[in-house]
Structures are given as C-alpha cells and as structure tokens.
Write a structure and sequence with these properties.
This protein has 282 residues and is an alpha/beta fold. It has a domain of 185 residues: Aromatic compound dioxygenase (Protocatechuate 3,4-Dioxygenase, subunit A). The protein has a 6-stranded mixed sheet with strand order 1-5-4-9-10-11, with no helix packed on it. A hairpin with a 6-residue loop joins β9 and β10. Bound molecules: 3,4-dihydroxybenzoic acid and fe (iii) ion. Its cofactor is Fe(3+). Its EC number is 1.13.11.1. This is Catechol 1,2-dioxygenase. It comes from Pseudonocardia benzenivorans.
C-alpha cells in the first residue's frame, strides 16, 4: 500500500457498498423466505449465539461492547463488507453443492452492474498512467459438453495496483478496471488489464476495529472478479487468484479455491494467462 494515494475511508466505501447492495437486491427480486424457514433459521442462529454466551460465560461489559459494535457497523454502512468477508463464503459453498462447471466463489461488496460493453479482444478502461504489471487474460467459454458459447459475457471487475476499486474510492474514475467483455463466435475473449495488488479491507471502520481487536489481519490475496453468463446457462460468479501470491493461504474472506489459482507466464510486456470457463445449462 502506498501512502501517496489518497485512501478511501471505510465510511465512504461502506456507504457505497450499502447503496450498491440495495440496488442489486432490487434487481434480483424479492427475497422468497417462508415463515417456516424464517422461524427455523433465525431460531437456530439465536440458539448458536445463546450457546456461545453460556459456554464462554460472556459478561455484561462484553455484551455492551458487542451491542455498540453492531450499531457502529450499521451506522457505518459496513454490513455488506462484514457479511461478504465473514459469512458469504459458506453461503457460496452450500450453493456450490448443486453446481457443475467452473467453480464459483464470493461476489464480495464491489460489483457494479451496467459497465461498458467491449468486444472479445479488449483493454479494460484504465487511467493513462495506470500502475501495475500488464496482464493479458484470455480464454474460452464452453458448455459442459465442450461446445463453445458464442457471445458469452465476461463481466469483469478488479482492484487497481494499490488495491482500490473504482466506484468505492473517490480518487478513481468511474468504471476504471471494469467492463463487460462479449466473447466472439467461438466463445473466446482476450482481456488486457493490469495485475491487481493484494486487497486490504477497510481498516478505519468497525470491521477494521474488530479485526485489530481480535488480532486478525485484513488482507485478501490479489484477485480478479468475474461473472460469466451465456443465454440458457447458469451464470457463475467467481474470482481468480495468482499462484504464489501473498495471503493466498490466509484470505480474510476465506474465498480462495485451488481451481481458481492462475499461473501467468512472463511476456515481453508483462504477464499472460489463459483460463477457460465451463457453464452448465440453466
Ligand atoms: C471485500 C472486498 C473484496 O474485494 C472482496 O472480494 C470481498 C470482500 C470487502 O471489503 O468486504
Ligand atoms: Fe475483491
């Protein structure tokens, strides 16, 4: 992390992440949860908390600290950040039990829909002086039988070389390092970008306060985010990591999977790597 780049505050990215989540849940439609399911799941969550209180003999001062912290998370707009780091990975693993094709992982709080659509061979929108090693990421989107999926969309977002996401860090231009790349008639694509840096979840808000109070670390390994979709097929949401990268085995968000680690090769300009996606029928 450099100190020359203005740091986005936790409150700033938290507020944006809350707004982005509200918009996305409207897009995804109403939550379908029955009374039976609410009763069962919420009761079991509460029972799990009660059990910890009993077994750990949680005190009144600890209860007060927890209450104050929960209020701070809400007021700071950090629920999307906190839940995507500490809970989403288990939701995703349950979803993965019934999914075939390329494995998924968490979406995280920083997806923004409606980005610039680009053709199959594309350079992501970036600043003229965008820092970082060049990375050419190419591949093919196929179905489970190996047939190419022409016109598949790769909805791509990543942090910059300082670990910041456009739309959540005011010093970055809107849409920086984000695009929807449309694969060619063979389902192929080639995206030119830069290698992102490891990402540190905001440390100056309540989530950061908890992480330091507990003696944890706030780092995620460097990663690319993608959604891949094609007509008639199940959309996948995943991330790709880099072999040998720092924090790969100790991701604060517990969202790495062996199948999702890239091994780029050096080129004259930077790095190149291929990765193919496999989608199952919807
Ligand atoms: C968070 C950030 C990410 O880039 C990500 O992939 C997951 C979680 C976060 O700050 O909560
Ligand atoms: Fe991320």
């Amino acid at each position: 992390m450099t100190t020359t780049t203005p740091s986005p505050t936790a409150a700033g990215s938290g507020a944006n992440a809350s707004e982005a989540f509200r918009a996305s849940s409207e897009r995804r439609g109403p939550a379908a949860t029955s009374q039976e399911r609410t009763d069962r799941v919420v009761r079991r969550v509460l029972e799990a908390i009660h059990q910890v209180v009993r077994e750990e003999e949680v005190t009144y001062p600890e209860f007060q600290a927890a209450k104050r912290w929960l209020m701070d998370v809400g007021e700071g707009g950090e629920w999307p950040l906190f839940l995507d780091v500490f809970v989403e990975h288990e939701i995703e693993k349950v979803a993965a039990r019934t999914q075939r094709g390329t494995v998924g992982t968490i979406e995280g709080p920083y997806y923004l829909p409606g980005q610039t659509r680009l053709p199959a061979v594309a350079t992501l929108p970036m600043r003229a002086d965008e820092k970082g090693d060049k990375l050419v990421f190419s591949g093919q989107v196929r179905d489970l039988d190996g047939h190419p999926l022409p016109g598949a969309e790769i909805d791509f977002w990543q942090a910059d070389a300082d670990g910041y996401y456009s739309g959540f860090a005011p010093h970055l231009p809107d849409g920086n390092l984000r695009a929807v790349v449309v694969a060619d008639d063979q389902g192929r694509f080639e995206i030119s970008s830069i290698k992102p840096a490891p990402y540190q979840i905001p440390t100056d808000g309540p989530t950061g306060a908890l992480i330091s109070a507990a003696g944890w670390h706030p780092w995620r390994p460097a990663h690319l985010h993608l959604m891949v979709r094609a007509d008639g097929h199940r959309q996948i949401t995943t991330q790709l990591y880099f072999t040998g990268g720092e924090w790969l085995d100790d991701d604060v968000a517990t969202a790495t999977k062996d199948e999702l680690v890239l091994d780029p090769t050096p080129t004259a300009e930077g790095w190149a790597v291929e990765y193919d996606f496999v989608l199952e029928r919807a």
